[in-house]
Amino acid sequence: DYAYNTEVTLSATANEGFRFVCWNDSVTDNPRTVTVSSDTTLTALFDTLYVTLTLTANNPDWGTVEGGGDYAYNTEVTLSATANEGFQFTGWSDGSEENPRTIVVTADLELMANFAEQNGIAGATESNVKIYPNPTDGVLLIEADNVLSIEVCSMDGRVLLRDKQTNGIDLSSLSTGIYFVIVECPQGRSVHKVVKR
Questions:
Q1: What is the C-alpha end-to-end distance of the chain, expressed in Å?
Q2: Which of 157, 49, 160, 72 is CA-nearest to residue 112?
Q3: Which residues of 7-43 are buried (b: 16+ CB within 10 A; e: fewer)?
Q4: What ranges in the chain are assigned the alpha helix state H?
Q5: What is the pTM of this model?
Q6: Which residues pair with 109 in a beta bridge?
Q7: Maximum distance among all Cα pairs of the chain, rounded to whole angstroms
Q8: Is the pLDDT of residue 120 over 60?
Q9: CA–CA gap between residue 31 and residue 8 (Å, rounded)
Q10: 5-14 contacts: CB < 8 A, separation 24 or more?
Q11: Is residue 74 left, alpha or beta, with left meaning phi > 0 and alpha meaning psi from -120 to 50?
Q12: How many whole angstroms separate alpha carbon 11 and alpha carbon 70?
């Protein structure tokens, strides 16, 4: 109850998982200020909050993803990444290697599935390559015989660093994240996932 011609500020606060749409007179201002000069009823209209989950592949020719779309807040969603023939799934852009994986969406989210060529990936045991420390703050040490080259690639396959040193490579110029380190030896190459802190 207000005195005639009083200026009043109204506000509408949505509960978790919902959003304010407008008032019943179609005004979308929130908060809004009105001047009351007669008995008035205003209703705040709310609706379910929807968020967008965007899924991509680092190379669409290497594999496909499923599970993206618009979902109601707090929905449990299953994502999957399927590699094409000759390729393999190596992990999601947020560092998870689970596939398929289930997440609960509470905000707009973008995830990329990373794929790599199968014939270009060898295990550290097979290639006799050891890299450490992992995670690393800067210099990554490499133990291997007859190293021909060392490359550091982004998760989407771009070469960021290249070196011919046999004992390591300095990652201090790179941002925090996950990278592929490719060590080329006469017997083949090995690809290692490395976390830069």
A1: 59
A2: 157
A3: eeeeebeeeeeeebebbeeeeeeeeeebeeeeeeeee
A4: 124-127
A5: 0.55
A6: 53
A7: 89
A8: no
A9: 10
A10: 5/35, 5/36, 5/37, 6/35, 6/36, 7/33, 7/34, 7/35, 8/33, 8/34, 8/35, 8/36, 9/33, 10/34, 10/42, 12/44, 12/46, 14/46, 14/49
A11: left
A12: 28
SS3 49: coil
Give pLDDT tens digits for 26-40. 999 999 999 999 999
* Long-range interactions of 124-131: CB distance < 8 A, separation 24+: 124/190, 124/192, 126/188, 126/190, 127/183, 127/185, 127/187, 127/188, 127/189, 127/190, 128/185, 128/187, 129/183, 129/185, 129/190, 129/192, 131/181, 131/183, 131/192, 131/194
Cβ neighbour number for residue 182 with a 10 Å cutoff: 19
Alpha helices in 61-172, H assignment, sequence order? 124-127
For residues 145 and 185, is the Cβ–Cβ distance under 8 A? yes
Tokens of 80: 């999957």
H/E/C letters for each residue in 60-77?
CCCEEEECCEEEECCEEE
**DSSP 3-state assignment of 191?**
strand
Q: Which residue has the higher pLDDT, 122 or 66?
A: 66
Render pLDDT for 121-179 as a digit per residue (tens, 0 to 9): 433 334 578 889 989 988 988 888 788 888 888 876 778 888 876 688 889 999 988 88
Work out the mean pLDDT of the chain and round it to a whole number.
87
